[in-house]
Specification:
It is a single chain. The protein is of the alpha/beta class and 460 residues long. The strands form 5 sheets. Strands 1, 2, 3, 4, 5, 6 and 17 form a 7-stranded mixed sheet that branches. Strands 8-15-9-10-11 form a 5-stranded parallel sheet. Strands 18-19-22-21-20 form a 5-stranded antiparallel sheet, sandwiched between helices. It is globular, with a radius of gyration of 23 Å. The mean pLDDT is 97. The structure holds flavin-adenine dinucleotide and 1,4-dihydronicotinamide adenine dinucleotide (NAI). Flavin-adenine dinucleotide (FAD) binds next to helix 1, strand 2, helix 2, helix 3 and helix 8.
Length: 460
């Protein structure tokens, strides 16, 4: 008689492990299949957590080298111990993945180690052992999108996984793709001493984000030393022992040129990982598992969440889907509000957004007011010496309801949470403007931007 469960989740990333925990909290008998040696998926092992560890360490390194003198702190020569920085990153990852193991034990979730394959609805095979279950959740995540002519070897031509593991600072790092990974990991290696060139197909960075915010971010990042080649495409790469030579053409066509790099980071997006999971669940036009909006696939009893389905490829989106699905499987009313999912790029300054952009509002024909406030006029930002950027709020012209919030600035990723909550509660810009904000705080820039929606900012 095979072991049987109420729910088997395939994949232990933030979608899968959170779904497993919530389902167990609700009294279901749960197992989670993971083929990696450790739990936590892309996010904890090779994504969010290690990248944020290196972003933080490299920020400290840069501050020690350049940022402290204006505060009257004089230090002598600073030296990079990259091996130690990488070891610290590994410790941070280790603590996080062990944390998920602990949560599995606490919630009595069975960890089925190996590769999961759906034999049929209600049956999951894990490396030759079959398990029975009422419900199956596919949470297999995503992988880096390949580019024809640019063969990844994770040494000279790397994805984010290889870029997190470099044991030497490259002299010249070329990044293909000015998206989130390109800007975050490009920033890490620039701060540690690399010359960094970012090649982007479009004529802007961070497609999908508010274009005013993206343009301002590009200016700040360029000033920090990232060199941008916009409107350009890479058509080939030749690797030898020490270098990669890229062929680069204008996106609109024209003469090609060669660019040499020690390391090339390919970061042109991610695509769902579904290899060998079977059976044939229906996919959409972009290779993502098609769901009915409530995580059900076309096969009864099989559900999907996270990077494997449509929507932003973000850990917190995957988590919220995991919770909502677990609640539905337990007979409750789980729900995700896709209109209010914040996105944060952890460069410095940070770049954060929630809700609609100006371009989206224009395209939808929605009339709106804009309120903006720069960090140069915020007392706390001045005290910190971090005055790059601004807060921009978009509110419905008729009702004043907040429709979007976009922040470039210090701790923008933390500041955006206030606006996500406001939007979740259907707040107007006036609600935010009339809320008492502590002084001196960065959040006062949010309040001032809300006041600015009706032209009554106080400090500008
Ligand atoms: P994943 O985390 O990809 O987990 C899927 C798991 O399923 C994997 O462990 C895989 O081994 C396992 N699996 C697959 N197939 C099988 C199988 N057949 N059997 C058993 N196991 C299987 N998002 C943010 O919100 N914030 C960030 O700061 C952030 N930073 C990132 C940085 C990098 C470098 C990268 C690459 C991504 C980052 N992301 C970030 C995105 C985030 O990691 C993903 O959105 C998130 O991990 C998706 O979660 P998931 O549960 O859908 O899948
Ligand atoms: P992305 O979708 O953010 O950016 C890819 C970029 O590559 C785009 O600007 C695109 O126009 C460009 N591009 C596409 N094809 C190209 C080509 N042939 N040549 C040059 N440029 C090309 O994807 P990225 O950066 O790889 O990240 C993948 C996912 O991981 C993202 O969807 C993101 O959600 C997630 N992630 C999230 C993070 C965060 O929340 N802080 C951090 C890192 C990743």
């Amino acid at each position: 008689m095979p072991d049987s469960f109420d729910v088997i989740v395939i994949g232990s990333g933030p979608g899968g492990y959170v779904c497993a925990i919530r389902a167990a909290q609700l009294g279901l008998k749960v197992a989670c299949v993971e083929k990696r040696e450790t739990l936590g998926g892309t996010c904890l092992n090779v994504g969010c957590i290690p990248s944020k560890a290196l972003l933080h360490s490299s920020e400290n390194f840069e501050k020690a080298g350049h940022g402290l003198a204006e505060h009257g702190i004089v230090i002598g020569d600073i030296k990079l111990d990259l091996a130690k920085m990488q070891a610290r990153k590994a410790d941070v990852v280790g603590a996080n993945v062990k944390g998920v193991e602990f949560l599995f034990r606490k919630n009595k979730i069975a960890w089925l180690k190996g590769t999961g394959r759906i034999a049929a609805a209600g049956k999951v095979d894990v490396d030759g052992t079959e398990y029975e279950t009422k419900h199956i959740v596919i949470a297999t995540g995503s992988e880096s999108t390949p580019l024809r002519g640019v063969e990844v070897d994770e040494k000279r031509i790397v994805t984010s996984t290889g870029a997190l593991e470099l044991d030497k600072v490259p002299e010249h790092l070329v990044v293909i793709g000015a998206g989130v990974i390109g800007l975050e990991l490009g920033s890490v290696w620039r701060r540690l001493g690399a010359r960094v060139t970012v090649i982007e197909f479009l004529d802007r960075i961070l497609p999908g984000m508010d274009s005013e915010l993206a343009t301002a971010a590009r200016r700040v990042l360029a000033r920090q030393g990232l060199a941008f080649r916009l409107g350009a495409k890479v058509t080939g790469a030749v690797t030898n022992e020490t270098r990669v030579t890229l062929t680069v053409e204008p996106a609109s066509g024209g003469a090609s040129e060669q660019i040499a790099a020690d390391v090339v980071l390919l970061a042109i997006g991610r695509r769902p990982w579904l290899e060998g999971v079977g059976p044939d669940v229906a996919l959409d036009e972009r290779g993502r598992i098609r769901t009915d909006g409530r995580f059900a696939t076309n096969i009864p009893g099989i559900y999907a969440i996270g990077d494997a389905i449509a929507g932003p490829m973000l850990a917190h989106k995957a988590e919220d889907e995991g919770v909502a699905l677990a609640e539905r499987l337990a007979g409750k009313a789980g729900h995700v509000n896709y209109a209010v999912i914040p996105g944060v790029v952890y460069t410095w300054p940070e770049i954060a957004s929630v809700g609609q952009t100006e371009e989206e509002l224009k395209a939808a024909g929605i009339a709106y007011n804009v309120g903006k406030f720069p960090f140069t006029a915020n007392g706390r930002a001045r005290a910190m010496g971090d005055t790059d950027g601004f807060v921009k709020l978009l509110a419905d012209k008729t009702t004043d309801r907040l429709l979007g919030a976009h922040i470039l600035g210090p701790d923008a990723g933390t500041l955006i949470a206030e606006l996500a909550i406001a939007m979740e509660f259907g707040a107007s810009s006036e609600d935010v403007a009339r809320t008492c904000h502590a002084h001196p705080s960065l959040n006062e820039a949010v309040k001032e931007a809300a006041l600015a929606v009706e032209g009554r900012a106080l400090h500008i």
